[in-house]
Amino acid sequence: MEAFIEQPTTMTRATLLLIASDGEWTRRSVGSVEWARKFASGHRLPAYDAGVVGYPQRMRDYNARRRSRG
């Protein structure tokens, strides 16, 4: 599992996107980017800035598989 941290915008709070090895994912609003980094570190998850590195292909593949199931 990896953590992708999304910076806050004027419309949304910071979010933490957790992506499993098969591409399944969940996104949660968090209090701050710092909290998200501490969470990832505390759980020994690699953490990335989503705005810099983007999202992994396995997440897009997972979404495509879900869409094709109807």
Adjacency order of strands in the biggest sheet: 3-2-1-4
Oligomer: single chain
Task: Please tally the helical runs, counting DSSP H or I stretches of 4 or more residues.
Answer: 3
Number of DSSP strand runs: 4
Q: What does the radius of gyration come to?
A: 13 Å
- What class would the helix/strand composition place it in? alpha+beta
Q: What level of helicity do the residues show?
A: 25-40%
**Proportion of residues in extended strands:** 25-35%
The helix-strand sequence is EEEHEHH
Contiguous runs where pLDDT drops below 50 for at least 5 residues: none
Tell me the distance between the termini.
26 Å
Largest sheet: 4 strands, mixed
Basic shape: globular
* pLDDT averaged residue by residue: 96
Give the topology, please.
Blueprint: E1 2-6, E2 15-19, E3 25-29, H1 33-42, E4 47-49, H2 50-53, H3 57-68
Parallel strand pairs: 1-4
Antiparallel strand pairs: 1-2, 2-3
What does this protein look like?
The chain is an alpha+beta fold. Helix content is 37%, strand content 26%. It contains three helices and four strands, in the order E-E-E-H-E-H-H. The chain has helices at residues 33-42, 50-53, 57-68, and strands spanning 2-6, 15-19, 25-29, 47-49. A four-stranded mixed β-sheet has the order 3-2-1-4. Strand 2 (15-19) and strand 3 (25-29) form a beta hairpin. The longest helix is centred in the C-terminal third of the chain and has 12 residues, at 57-68. The termini are far apart.
